[in-house]
Amino acid sequence: MPVITLTDAADDRLRDYRDLTDVALRRAVEPAEGMYMAEGAKVIGRALAAGHRPRSMLLLERWLDPMRELLGPRLDQVPVLVAPMEVIEAVTGFAVHRGALAAMERPALPSLSEVVAHARRVVVLESIVDHTNVGAIFRSVAGLGADAVIVAPECADPLYRRSVKVSMGTVFQVPWARASVWPGALDELRAHGFVVAGLTLGDGAVSLRDFAAAQHPKVAIVLGAEGDGLTSQAAAHTDVAVTIPMAGSVDSLNVAAASAVALWALSPSS
Questions:
Q1: Do the bridges between strand 35-39 and strand 206-207 make them parallel or antiparallel, or are there none, so unpaired?
Q2: How is the chain split into domains, by residue range?
Q3: Beta-sheet strand order (sheet of 80-82)
Q4: Alpha carbon separation from 83 to 62, 76, 188 (Å, rounded)
C-alpha cells in the first residue's frame, strides 16, 4: 500500500478531498469527475464489499493499520494519503472524526428497467433535496426489505457524502437508478406491473392500512419533496393516493420516517 505523508493543505494530491462541506460545488464536481466520497471504516468497507474501487484514501496516521487490514493485498496500488488532523480539516472543511476518507470511483448506474426487473417493492423519490433524508430512506429500504429505489432527475444524489454516511453504506447494497424522464418513469413502472401509490396528505387518499390489506403483488411507493409533497404532475401519474393517518394534531411525518412506516406496513411479515 503506497503511503504518502502530506503536511501541506495546498498539495494538489488532496484535490479530490477539497471543500467537502460546499454542497453546491461537490454536487457538480463529483458526478462530473466520476467519483464519490466514503467516510469511516464501516462505510468504506461496505463500498469495497460492493465492488467499488477507491481512487485514493486520506487518513490520520493511527488509521493506517486498520485500513491495511480492510484493503487487503488486492488493492495494494491504491494511494494512501496520510496527514495530521489540522491539514485534513483545512482541506475538507470539517473535523473528520471517523479518521478515514476514501475518494471512490462512481459506478455506472443501471437503467430503471434493470433495477425493477425482479423487484416487488420499490420506493420512488421525487425532488427530495435533503441528503440526510435520502440516506435515511435508503437505510429504511435496506432494513425493511424493499427491493430498489428510483430517484427522479431533481432528487439529491444518493452518493453524496452525507447521504452515504446516514445510510450507513446501505446505498451500496440497494439497487437504484435515476429516472431519465419524469413523471414518465411512473408510467414505466406501471408497464412493469407495479401499482404506483403516491404517499400524500391529499383529500380522498386511502389509509395505508387499507392499501396494505389489498396485498398488491408489486407496489411502487412515491415520496414527494420535503414540505410540498408530491407535485400535481407526479400525482396525475399514480394509480392511488395513500395516506398515513395521524393523531395528536400532527399533520404529517418527516419523509424518511414516512418511508419506514409505509415499508413496514407493506412488508409481508407485518
A1: unpaired
A2: 3-105, 112-266
A3: 3-5, 80-82, 54-59, 100-105, 35-39
A4: 10, 19, 49
> Which residue in the block uniquely carries the three cell numbers 457538480?
28
Task: Give the whole-angstrom CA distance, residue 174 versus residue 148.
Answer: 6
Residues of the chain with pLDDT under 70: 1, 73-76, 269-270
Which ranges in 35-182 belong to alpha helices (H)?
Answer: 41-49, 64-71, 85-92, 112-116, 131-143, 161-166
112-266 placed in CATH 3.40.1280.10: yes
Give residues with Cβ within 8 angstroms of 42, minimum separation 6: 168, 169
How many angstroms separate the CA atoms of 234 and 111, rounded? 20
Q: What average pLDDT is seen over the chain?
A: 93
For residue range 167-188, what is the model confidence (pLDDT) as tens digits? 999 999 999 999 999 999 999 9
Does this chain's domain 3-105 share its CATH topology with 112-266?
Answer: no
The partner residues of 195 in beta bridges, in order of sequence, read 219
pLDDT score recorded for residue 74: 56
Secondary structure (3-state) at 44? helix
pLDDT reported for residue 73: 65
* Rounded Cα–Cα distance for residues 270 and 268 (Å): 6
CB contact set of 109 (below 8 Å; sequence gap of 6+): 176, 177, 178
